[in-house]
Amino acid sequence: MNGRLKLRIRRASNKRLGGPMPWVVAIMVALMVMIASAGMALSNLARTSEADLSGSLTVQIMEAAEYLRDREAAAAMSVLEERDDIAQLRRVSDRELRDMLEPWLGDLGEGGANVPIPALIDARLAVPLSEARLAQIRQSVIEAAPSARVEAQSTWLAPVLRAVSALQYYALGLVALLGVTTAAAVWLAARSAMAANRDTIEVVHLLGGTDDQVVRLFQKPVVRDAALGGAVGFILGGGLTLLMARQFAALDSGLVASGRLGVADWAVIASIPLAAVALAALTARISVMSVLRGIR
Amino acid sequence: MNAGRDPIVRFDNVGLRYGTDREVLSDLNFALLPDSFYFLTGPSGAGKTSLLRLLYLAQKPSRGIISMFGENAGLLPRKALPPLRRRIGVVFQDFRLIDHLSVFDNVALPLRIGRIAEEELRESVSDMLDWVGLGHRAEAHPAVLSGGEQQRVAIARAVIARPEVLVADEPTGNVDPAMGRKLIRLFEALNRLGTTVVVATHDRTLQKEVSVAHMMKLDRGRLTIAEPAA
Ligand SMILES: Nc1ncnc2c1ncn2[C@@H]1O[C@H](COP(=O)(O)OP(=O)(O)OP(=O)(O)O)[C@@H](O)[C@H]1O
Ligand SMILES: [Mg+2]
């Protein structure tokens, strides 16, 4: 009935804090949580942006003379309006364009009217944009507006999205490295607990304790330390992540909002401290068994 | 008188060497009978502790066969050894008390390993501590006890679970003659209850205390056994 071996082991170092193990685990888990959530936010952002952008295209009218430009823009608009694969169509006003360009080109105000800026048309498609469809739209727009440049928005952003994807793998690599480092730290802590308690292991073993009894004796404090560290690290890392998320949400930008973490993402993040605890239990077991096998 | 009964322990052509040194124990052939009392004597370095380590399954022989409770210990899987060890009580020559546990917890250890419930073990541990005269030191830690007191804790731990075999390595080396005699009475009492007792000791007066004892004599790794004088 009383399956547990009621027996304390001597802590490897500082008795009050249970050694540095919980703190190492806490820091590692916090870092992993933050990096993993950043990575997943980037991944979400890349995925939703790609889906958004692949359904839209831009037409720029490059004609320098303003009256020709307006004529070509109107012609392009009417060509696009007639197509039933275009769901939404909008001419970006010159005012908006000037505002957008101002940070780069300075105030273009009325006096800057001689700086030519292209006319810009945003179109959202009703169907996915294939290469063939893009080429066909481009051809019909250019027939009506010779200086038009027709591009899918995804082609603009493709390099950016590729860079974002690369960042995901970078984050994954960091999390893996931190995981290995955590394992090493737990391993060292378990080994030093082992060394400090070698006499206890031997005596319990010689008095007929089973391998499992001895293992559990050591797993308990190691797992408790890891659980403490994991909880603190999760609260720390998760808290900072939520804080960051609120900062970004305050930007109220569609692109940033698309990086929001979902329930599944949080489940993955929550599994990080649990994995740390499982790792500690496994590590403790392996190091105790290696001592036991050396005895007989 | 015990002849004809199955031995509880059997050594057949057992030899032991540490590393690549010459054999510390050679050609051991003997059987320990149930309910019997054995003294193991011999000069320092003769191999008494080594023989006892083989007996309590802390050590594998380099050659030969050791049977415990009718089983060939050398052929048993690792998992089968703990239950055998629980049938053997050991007083280590260097006590091997766990010094961050109280005297009470040290003595309770074999019962806890045997999964005896807390309520059940409390009384037997207290009784045992009273018996070895340490009832008042139950909460003390071994480090603050005298050598003789530590030895009595070690003995209490060895006998608390009523082992079938009791192996004691110089169990009275640190106590005065009166306490030594008292402890030997404890071993005798256990022996009468059916425990096979093996005591390694240099103490000749102690050897005379137990009239029914077989005398095992080790000299340079070789063993001879004399039947009880009585
Ligand atoms: N772990 C070991 N490694 C190597 N040699 C050992 C080991 N243990 C004991 N020996 C050697 O084996 C021999 C017998 O030692 P053992 O401890 O069995 O003698 P003993 O009869 O118990 O002596 P004492 O009466 O002093 O306790 C000694 O020569 C000792 O040096
Ligand atoms: Mg010895």
Can you tell me about this structure?
The complex is a heterodimer of chains A (296) and B (230). Chain A has 296 residues and is α+β, with helices and mostly antiparallel strands. Chain A is 70% helix and 8% strand. In chain A, α1 packs antiparallel against α5, α1 crosses α7 (211-251) and α7 packs antiparallel against α9 (263-295). Chain A folds into two domains: 3-50 and 158-295, no CATH class; 63-146, no CATH class. The longest helix of chain A has 44 residues, at 153-196. Chain B is α/β, with parallel strands linked by helices and 230 residues long. Chain B has a six-stranded mixed β-sheet with strand order 6-7-8-3-9-10, sandwiched between helices. Chain B has a four-stranded antiparallel β-sheet with strand order 2-1-4-5, covered by helices on one side. Chain B is globular. Classes of the chains: A alpha+beta (296), B alpha/beta (230). Chain A binds chain B through residues 1-3, 5-10, 199-200, 202-204, 206-211, 213, 295-296, and chain B through 56-60, 78-79, 81-88, 90, 96, 98, 100-101, 105, 109-110, 112-118, 157. Bound molecules: adenosine-5'-triphosphate and magnesium ion. Magnesium ion binds next to α1 of chain B.
Keywords:
heterodimer; A: 296 residues; alpha+beta; 2 domains; 4-stranded antiparallel beta sheet; B: 230 residues; Rossmann fold; 10 strands; binds magnesium ion; transmembrane helix (chain A)
Layout: helices, strands, pairs:
The complex is a heterodimer of chains A (296) and B (230).
Chain A: H1 21-53, E1 56-61, H2 66-82, E2 86-92, H3 94-105, E3 119-125, H4 131-144, E4 148-152, H5 153-196, H6 198-206, H7 211-251, H8 254-257, H9 263-295
Antiparallel strand pairs in A: 1-3, 1-4, 2-3
Helix pairs in contact in A: 1-5, 1-7, 1-9, 2-4, 5-9, 6-9, 7-9
Chain B: E1 9-16, E2 25-32, E3 37-41, H1 48-55, E4 63-68, E5 71-72, H2 81-85, E6 88-91, H3 103-113, H4 118-131, H5 147-159, E7 165-169, H6 177-192, E8 196-200, H7 204-209, E9 214-219, E10 222-226
Parallel strand pairs in B: 3-8, 3-9, 6-7, 7-8
Antiparallel strand pairs in B: 1-2, 1-4, 4-5, 9-10
Helix pairs in contact in B: 3-4, 3-5
The complex binds adenosine-5'-triphosphate (ATP) and magnesium ion.
The site of adenosine-5'-triphosphate (ATP) has 11 residues of chain B, from helix 1.
